[in-house]
Design brief:
heterodimer, A: about 160 residues, about 35% helix, globular, B: 5-stranded antiparallel β-sheet, 4-stranded antiparallel β-sheet, 14 strands
Chain lengths: ~160, ~290
């Protein structure tokens, strides 16, 4: 059998764009995003679902892209960190991370932001405990957790002010 | 080292009967693949010897939580997120919700499934002790038909299950009990999220007349399989909870569990913590009588 004889066609929507890909069925979505689509904002940390650096939204749900086989992304809608900002304006959560200093080395940051965006989509005004639970699957090895936490609180406040304005 | 991807196959049967036909044609040749939270880890580590898989993720027949008068039936693909958001499970089966909440983080809870957790057969599975104390029954399907099996008879040894090569877990049935019960779940791990347990304990007790009318106790990470602790239950059933009962129960539990030293913990620590969790559970039971 030729090398790529077992490749399959996967069609999905990534950051709003239809994509058709020829991939091995068990290729990690993480690698497909980074190597086929050159969306390198999604990072690999542990590669075993422990650290959340590779977080993406799969049909609106938070997922570790290192644990998603490409075939299961067929017909899915995927949002990566690259899809959050509009061309002229950062996402509210991204802006809050900058203002609160919620990034040090930056490897965990895309995953943290994707997880935070997902949390605020589900629970617009989370309690402190809900923020901690929502980000519990994302590790920061610089241990800058307090500033990350404060960034999410800041984003919530911004969201609340915008809604009430 | 990483696995070589061209060696692996993953196919998507259109529906459950097609999946069962695939299994029946060559029993053992194809293995099921649900949310991937265990299998993808093995793949990346180069530790996935089996090469041919079929995806279950899209099979509607394995989804859905059905609430009937006498039982709640959870499709095998029910995710932890679905468990912990379900109002009837929250109210009547809180230990399963606690287990779901303490499994991985949100991303894992979105993809990890109850059926996958059961079939992965880890002795450290978080949901299994809860399912054991709730007297869960498994619905196993194959092209030959359907059979139901009490969950406590499913795990026969380390990663050995009463599951034929042509069978799939279709659903998990939890009998509803409309009586007040003391319910207790405790996972002891290195941290609160994303941990694999050192010890996990689940207990359910029905109290009457100042004593224990009936009780279920199950533990994880203390034996080659998750363990329903029948002798410990026997030491407690019908008894008033006092220091003597607790001592007798602890002695029974010490005889039932067989913890080991491994990367996560030690035999000694696991034994000690198991006995203390049992005492904590029984004291809660006693407290509920006084309260």
């Amino acid at each position: 059998m030729p090398e790529d004889g077992r490749k399959v066609t996967v069609t999905c929507k990534v950051n709003g764009l239809e994509r058709t890909l020829r991939v091995y069925p068990l290729a990690r979505l993480l690698d497909v995003l980074r190597e086929e689509l050159h969306l390198t904002g999604t990072k690999e940390g542990c590669g075993e679902g422990e650290c959340g650096a590779c977080s993406v939204l799969l049909n609106g749900q938070l997922a570790n892209s290192c644990l998603i086989p490409a075939l299961q992304a067929d017909k899915a809608e995927i949002a990566t960190i690259e899809g959050l900002a509009s061309p002229d304006c950062l996402h509210e959560v991204q802006q809050a991370f900058i203002e609160a200093g919620g990034a040090q080395c930056g490897i965990c940051t895309p995953g943290m932001i994707v997880a935070a965006v997902n949390l605020l989509a589900r629970i617009p005004q989370p309690t402190e405990g809900e923020i901690r639970f929502g980000l519990a699957g994302n590790l920061c090895r610089c241990t800058g957790y307090m500033k990350i936490f404060q960034a999410v609180v800041r984003a919530c406040r911004r969201q609340r002010e915008r809604v009430s304005a | 080292m990483r696995s070589y991807l061209p060696d692996y196959e993953l196919v998507t049967p259109a529906n459950l009967s097609e999946a069962l036909a695939l299994l029946a044609r060559q029993p053992g040749a194809w293995k099921p693949f649900a949310g991937g939270t265990d299998l993808m880890v093995l793949l990346e580590a180069g530790k996935l010897p089996h090469k041919k898989f079929f995806s279950l993720w899209h099979l509607e027949e394995l989804k859905d939580i059905a609430v009937a008068d006498d039982a709640v039936v959870l499709g095998a693909l029910t995710t932890y997120t679905e468990v912990l958001n379900h109002p009837v499970l929250q109210k009547e089966f809180p230990l399963l919700c606690q287990a779901a909440r303490q499994t991985g983080g949100v991303a894992t809870q979105n993809r990890g499934t109850l059926g996958g957790n059961i079939a992965n057969a880890s002795p450290a599975a978080d949901s299994s002790p809860a399912l054991l104390v709730y007297d869960a029954e498994l619905e196993l399907v194959s092209a030959r038909g359907t059979r139901s099996l009490p969950y406590h008879r499913f795990h026969l040894g380390y990663k050995v299950m009463d599951l034929q090569p042509d069978e799939l877990i279709r659903a998990i049935r939890l009998p509803r009990v409309h009586k007040p019960r003391v319910q207790y779940y405790r996972k002891v791990g290195t941290r609160r999220a994303q941990a694999i347990s050192k010890v996990v304990f689940a207990g359910v007790a029905e109290m009457a007349g100042g004593g224990v009318r009936d009780v279920r106790i199950a533990l994880g990470s203390v034996a080659p399989t998750v363990l329903r602790c029948g002798q410990t239950e026997e030491a407690v059933r019908g008894q008033r909870i006092d220091s003597q009962t607790i001592k007798r129960a602890q002695a029974a539990l010490a005889g039932e569990i067989a913890p080991i030293d491994d990367i996560r913990s030690t035999r000694r620590y696991r034994r000690q913590v198991s006995l203390r969790l049992l005492a904590d559970f029984l004291q809660r039971c006693a407290g509920s009588v006084q309260g």
